[in-house]
């Protein structure tokens, strides 16, 4: 079936949509292509998973999520991305309307190859920030203009952003998105993600709980769901500026 493209701005087109049954309920998936008629643009297909009627909606939960193939497809334990995505879909479905905007900016925008290069450096002892820097890459190369355009296209008037990253809130606000609140998406650490999450808290200003016990990765530290679920976090010592 031919679906006529809808031009949102010269480089961003709505190109397809369909219902998508998921274990969290039925979403509508919209695909947006980042490519102008003259071939400029990344050629990437970004998604919005929409639950319920969001046109004209105010204060609805929205997750602006960045692609992470290693965790979302292959179940890597190094980060919290897949669980955050799952949590966001469940939360949006629970509330009854909202959206997950899925941006194809793998590896905080440096791409899959560079992320795997960074992982190799991390395997040699560098943290997620230093690994990028050693590669001569920015700590975070992401942009959110496409997310802002998608939310405008969907008719969303204002949002509660599901994120631990205050910079993401500010970036979206700077693009004109009315963010009325931030809702944390805290995932319990496992032995392989604990250091990474702690680095995000210490060096990237993410609003994450301070770990009262950092689980160790390595021989014998086989992560299990029960371990992940029962690890204690110390939430009594939030960083300054937690309140919003
Ligand atoms: N360069 C790099 N990217 C990573 C690494 N681990 C995960 N990512 C990418 O980081 C992106 C997710 O960003 P995060 O910093 O985890 O979280 P965030 O989106 O800023 O904040 P939240 O909304 O709280 O999830 C995804 O694109 C992942 O592919 C890493 O070690 N190095
Ligand atoms: Zn990830």
UniProtKB/TrEMBL annotation:
> Which reaction does this enzyme catalyse, per its entry?
GTP + 4 H2O = 2,5-diamino-6-hydroxy-4-(5-phosphoribosylamino)-pyrimidine + formate + 2 phosphate + 3 H(+)
Supply the InterPro entries for this chain. Answer: GTP_cyclohydro_II, RibA, RibA-like_sf
Which residues of the sequence carry a binding annotation for GTP?
63-67, 84, 106-108, 128, 163, 168
Q: Which GO terms describe its molecular function?
A: GTP cyclohydrolase II activity
**Which coenzymes or cofactors are required?**
Zn(2+)
Please tell me where Zn(2+) binds in this chain. Answer: 68, 79, 81
Q: Which Pfam families match?
A: GTP_cyclohydro2
Q: Where is the GTP cyclohydrolase II domain?
A: 16-184
Q: What class of enzyme is it?
A: hydrolase
Pathway(s) where this gene product acts: Cofactor biosynthesis; riboflavin biosynthesis; 5-amino-6-(D-ribitylamino)uracil from GTP: step 1/4
**Which controlled-vocabulary keywords does the entry list?**
GTP-binding, Hydrolase, Metal-binding, Nucleotide-binding, Riboflavin biosynthesis, Zinc
Q: Metal-binding: present as a keyword of the record?
A: yes
Q: What is its EC number?
A: 3.5.4.25
Cofactor details (free text): Binds 1 zinc ion per subunit.
Catalytic residues of the enzyme = 140 (proton acceptor), 142 (nucleophile)
Tell me the protein family, please.
Belongs to the GTP cyclohydrolase II family.
Q: Which PANTHER family match?
A: GTP CYCLOHYDROLASE II DOMAIN-CONTAINING PROTEIN (PTHR21327:SF47), GTP CYCLOHYDROLASE II-RELATED (PTHR21327)
Protein role: Catalyzes the conversion of GTP to 2,5-diamino-6-ribosylamino-4(3H)-pyrimidinone 5'-phosphate (DARP), formate and pyrophosphate.
Query: Could you tell me which NCBIfam families the record lists for this protein?
Result: PRK00393.1 (NF001591), ribA (TIGR00505)
Name listed for the protein in its UniProt record = GTP cyclohydrolase-2
Instruction: Give the species this sequence originates from.
Output: Pendulispora brunnea
Which gene specifies this protein's sequence?
ribA
């Amino acid at each position: 079936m031919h679906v006529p493209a809808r031009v949102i701005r010269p480089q961003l087109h709505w190109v397809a949509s369909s219902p998508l049954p998921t274990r969290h309920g039925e979403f509508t998936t919209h695909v947006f292509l980042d490519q102008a008629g003259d071939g400029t643009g990344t050629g990437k297909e970004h998604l919005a998973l929409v639950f319920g009627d969001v046109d004209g909606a105010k204060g609805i939960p929205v997750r602006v999520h960045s692609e992470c193939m290693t965790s979302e497809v292959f179940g890597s334990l190094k980060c919290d991305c897949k669980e955050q995505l799952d949590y966001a879909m469940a939360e949006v479905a629970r509330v009854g309307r909202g959206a997950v905007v899925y941006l194809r900016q793998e590896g905080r925008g440096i791409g899959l190859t560079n992320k795997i290069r960074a992982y190799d450096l991390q395997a040699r002892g560098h943290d997620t920030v230093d690994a990028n820097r050693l590669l001569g890459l920015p700590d975070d190369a992401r942009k959110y203009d496409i997310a802002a355009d998608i939310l405008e296209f969907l008719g969303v008037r204002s949002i509660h952003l599901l994120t631990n990253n205050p910079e993401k809130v500010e970036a979206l606000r700077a693009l004109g998105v009315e963010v009325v609140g931030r809702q944390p998406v805290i995932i319990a650490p496992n032995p392989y993600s604990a250091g990474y999450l702690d680095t995000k808290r210490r060096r990237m200003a993410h609003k994450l709980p301070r770990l009262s016990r950092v689980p160790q990765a390595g021989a014998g530290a086989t992560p299990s769901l029960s371990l992940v679920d029962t690890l204690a976090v110390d939430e009594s010592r939030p960083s300054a500026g937690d309140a919003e």
